[in-house]
Write a structure and sequence with these properties.
This protein is an alpha+beta fold and 115 residues long. The protein has helices at 29-32, 36-39, 57-62, 91-97; strands at residues 11-16, 22-27, 41-43, 52-53, 66-74, 78-86, 102-103, 106-112.
Length: 115
């Protein structure tokens, strides 16, 4: 018997990159529920006037979007890590504000910048 795969629905998200230009990428809205505003992620299917749609996180990075590594608690007392995009104008405040909030329903315990 094959286990059912977990389907993750993705929606268009807009994040301010270099010079405030909105960069669009599809992300899982469910995972970002409690931290979207803190990271400067705006879920909308309507593209901003000067928005640029990106095909990958590499494209998002090339357009000036900042990234954070979030560590969050999982059952068994362990932690896991994920990398999330963050608007350039939110990077200095989001770093501290996301600690204690939730990523996909799990408590964020630390934040670092990617190497």
């Amino acid at each position: 018997m094959v286990a059912a795969s977990k389907t993750i629905s993705k929606e268009m998200a807009w994040i301010k990159g270099a010079e405030g230009v909105p960069i669009g990428i599809k992300l899982s809205k469910r995972k970002y529920t409690s931290i979207a505003a803190t990271l400067g992620v705006d879920f909308s299917n309507t593209a901003p006037a000067n928005g640029i749609k990106a095909d990958s996180l590499d494209d998002v990075s090339r357009n000036g979007v900042f990234f954070l590594n979030l560590s969050y608690e999982v059952p068994g007392g362990k932690t896991q890590r994920t990398t999330v995009p963050c608007a350039t104008d939110k990077a200095d405040t989001a770093f501290k504000q996301v600690i204690g909030q939730e990523w996909d329903g799990k408590k964020i315990v630390s934040v670092k910048t990617p190497r």
